[in-house]
Specification:
221 residues; alpha+beta; 10 strands
Length: 221
């Protein structure tokens, strides 16, 4: 049966076998705020550019606590990012109420992956947001990236959003697993600045062993 014979059925796959709606969502992510994540055995940090707004408007929050031991950030449509943040928070709270223990970061990333994947199996708009999650659990410090398709990765360095390839190149070249926290914060700021070609305002979130997730804001103008 052809598409015309099947009403308004959306063509999921393009000529190269790629998911059309997911590619569109990834394009929206690539236009979002430059956002990075860096992890070493001793800490993890996430950072995102705060884009300039109208003088009478407060800038959007970019770094979000999920639980005492987990934080997240994202790039893409802010409304979609906020929905995904709420999804992460709800799953974390449900786990605490059910098991009386904090959720591990891997389980949280997999839950978000399944949530996003469901949008690719029906003719609805996928969430136009990629999310980076940091946290500490029984296996140590963790860093994950989850994309609109539901694909997720675990690693030591990620970059999403505007000119993310440039930011990731800076991180890859200067990453050192023995670096100190202040060095990682500076590397994150440098990666975002290089990708934008200007000095940004950056919000940063930090996870350290045995400490509550916290965030700071740096004005580099």
């Amino acid at each position: 049966m052809s598409e015309s014979q099947n009403g308004n059925r959306f063509p999921f796959y393009g000529p190269q076998g790629r998911l059309v709606l997911v590619d569109s969502a990834l394009e929206a992510v690539s236009r979002g705020s430059t956002t990075i994540g860096i992890k070493t055995p001793n800490f993890a940090m996430i950072a995102s550019q705060i884009k300039p707004t109208h003088p009478l408007m407060e800038p959007s929050e970019k770094i979000f606590p999920i639980d005492f031991h987990i934080g997240a950030t994202g790039a893409g449509y802010i409304g979609d990012i906020l929905q995904l943040i709420d999804t992460l928070r709800l799953e974390s709270q449900k786990h605490r109420l059910t098991y009386e223990t904090p959720i591990d970061v891997d389980s949280l990333a997999k839950h978000l992956s399944s949530f996003l994947h469901n949008y690719t199996t029906y003719a609805v708009r996928p969430q136009a947001a990629s999310v980076i999650i940091v946290g500490e659990d029984q296996t140590g410090i963790q860093l994950y990236q989850v994309d609109p398709s539901g694909t997720f990765f675990r690693g030591s360095g990620f970059a999403i959003g505007q000119a993310s390839e440039v930011a990731l190149d800076v991180i890859t070249k200067e990453y050192n697993r023995d670096m100190k926290l202040d060095q990682a914060i500076e590397l994150g700021r440098k990666a975002i600045e290089k990708s934008l070609g200007e000095k940004p305002i950056v919000e940063t979130g930090i996870v350290e062993p045995g400490k509550t997730f916290r965030k700071i804001r740096t004005d580099n103008t």
